[in-house]
Amino acid sequence: MTDFATTRRLFHLPEGVLYLDGNSLGPLPLAAEARVHEVLTREWGEQLIRAWNSADWIGLPRRVGDRIGRLIGAPEGSVATGDTLSVKVFQALAAALTLRPERKVVLSDTGNFPSDLYIASGLIQALGSGLELRLVAPENVADAIDESVAVTLITEVDYRTGRRHDMKALTAKAHAAGAVTVWDLAHSAGAVPVDLTAADADFAVGCTYKYLNGGPGAPAFIYVAPRFAETARPILSGWMGHEAPFAFDLDYRPHASVERMRVGTPPVLALAVLDAALDAWEGVDMADVRAASIRLSERFIAEVEARCPDLALASPRDPHARGSQVSFRHPQGYAIMQALIANEVIGDFRAPDLIRFGFTPLYLSEEDTVAAAKVLERVMTERLWDDPAYATRSKVT
Ligand SMILES: *Cc1c(COP(=O)(O)O)cnc(C)c1O
Fold first, then answer.
1. CA 360/CA 21 separation, integer angstroms
2. How far is C-alpha 262 from the chain's CA centre?
3. What is the pLDDT of residues 10-25, one digit of tens each?
4. Using CA atoms, how far apart are residues 269 and 278, in angstroms rounded to an integer?
5. Which helix (DSSP H) or strand (DSSP E) does residue 356 occupy?
6. Catalytic residue among 11, 90, 209, 328
7. Residue 160 CB less than 6 A away from ligand 1
8. What predicted TM-score, i.e. pTM, was given to this entire model?
9. Helix (H/G/I), strand (E/B), else coil: 106
10. Nearest to 379 by CA among 370, 387, 391
11. Pocket test for ligand 1, best of 159, 163, 165, 194 (most atoms within 8 A of CB)
12. 303: CA distance to ligand 1 center in Å?
């Protein structure tokens, strides 16, 4: 059994704050500070450029990729890290499209995160080969998979409602129709058990600053199924994805593994933070995380529905149909969230009317979720949100 009292002590949680936004930005892992200090002083400071070899900075993206791989059912050497998730979506989709050159449809859904859709549109425009981005409602994805579809570009867990797709069933359906799958695990990695191998997924991508606690702007990851590792074309063919970067050949030859999806020089400081953050997952069983996450979210929903009749559940009621987040609707959602934050309960707001809460058993307890629901009750019954100070929207909501 995972001991969540122990994992909680691995994070810095500001005194008095109830943090239900680890689905957007995980908290600071305490180990990160010492790790970064060491990289700054002993490695960069003392060893200078020698540290690429002596501290194996060059191997860091691969080591971190393998650690993420263990959390998502990916074998050693099948996950590359670096860049941002948006860039990794671009690479995965481009590589997947080259595997089905005769087909013209990229299928996604209206619950997908806008950046994924923008990237897909931009890529389609750049390729200029008659491709079409076809969007359907999340619940209609399965029916929309037919033999015109080249690639399905689906985010497993909906960032707004927490609705969760059935990755295994949709992948099987896509394969039966001859389509290639790209799964976005932004709200899955570290949130729910993922088994890319068992699901037979083709490509997957994700970020590490949400449930994996890698810090703001932490490097993203990309998975390529081993069967495509030597054929998937890395459209961003940078030198770090070359078979021999330090041969400085004039011609590009992709690395014979997922490493071909690396682009440029790895962000060593950010990778060091992420590496330290991943220490918190050592010995953690994702089945325990899932069971605890369901317990927390079910308790939170029950408390909020009993205390705040004006808030309408926007997430699936069945916990197995959700990821690890819960949203409620209210026309004054933005002001409500601002009032909550002013009262030390941190969640976030997603336009037009959703207040959103993430459940992260590594550092969030059942008492925390009940305490948060009580503050939300006070915000609602005392109309604390009804204050002009909470009406003006910040750039980041
Ligand atoms: C958070 C998120 C992103 C953000 O992409 P970045 O490039 O890291 O800014 C993209 N897609 C999905 C599905 C997300 O949830």
1. 9
2. 18
3. 999 999 999 999 999 9
4. 14
5. strand 354-358
6. 209
7. no
8. 0.98
9. strand
10. 387
11. 159
12. 30
Residue that has been written with the tokens 């039966």 in this structure:
176
**What are the phi and psi torsion angles at 79 (to 5°)?**
-125, 125
Catalytic residue list contains 118? no
- Is ligand 1 within 6 A of the CB of residue 339? no
Residue 304 to residue 340: CA distance in whole angstroms: 13
Distance (Å, rounded) from C-alpha 39 to C-alpha 45? Answer: 8
Active site residue 209: yes
> Which pLDDT tens digit goes with each residue over 313-336?
999 999 999 999 999 999 999 999
| Catalytic residue list contains 356 | yes
Q: Mind giving me the DSSP string for 143-208?
A: HH--TTEEEEEEESB-TTT-BB--HHHHHHHHHHTT-EEEEE-TTTTTTS---HHHHT-SEEEE-S
For residues 269 and 271, give the distance between their C-alpha atoms in angstroms, rounded to a whole number: 5
The token pair that represents 89 in the structure block: 């979506």
Atom of ligand 1 nearest to the CA of 112: 13
Q: At 275, is the secondary structure helix, strand, or coil?
A: helix
Task: Determine whether 63 is an active site residue.
Answer: no
| 113 in catalytic set | yes
DSSP-assigned letter for residue 242: B
Atom of ligand 1 nearest to the CA of 86: 7
- Does the Cβ of 83 fall within 6 Å of ligand 1? no
How far the first Cα of the chain sits from its last, in Å, is: 36
For residue 22, the SS3 value is: coil
Ligand 1 neighbourhood includes 11 CB (under 6 angstroms): no
Q: Helix (H, G, I), strand (E, B), or coil: what is residue 364? A: coil
- Answer yes or no: is the C-beta of 209 below 6 A from any ligand 1 atom: no
Measure the CA–CA gap between 287 and 46, rounded to whole angstroms.
43
CA 264 to chain centre: 22
Task: Give the residue from 223, 213, 220, 360 showing the smallest Cα distance to 273.
Answer: 213
DSSP assignment of 284-339: --HHHHHHHHHHHHHHHHHHHHHH-TT-EE-S-SSGGGB-SEEEEE-TTHHHHHHH
Helices 268-278, 31-38: inter-axial angle, 10-degree rounding: 140
Atom in ligand 1 nearest the alpha carbon of residue 220: 8
Residues 9-64: tens digit of each pLDDT: 999 999 999 999 999 999 999 999 999 999 999 999 999 999 999 999 999 999 99
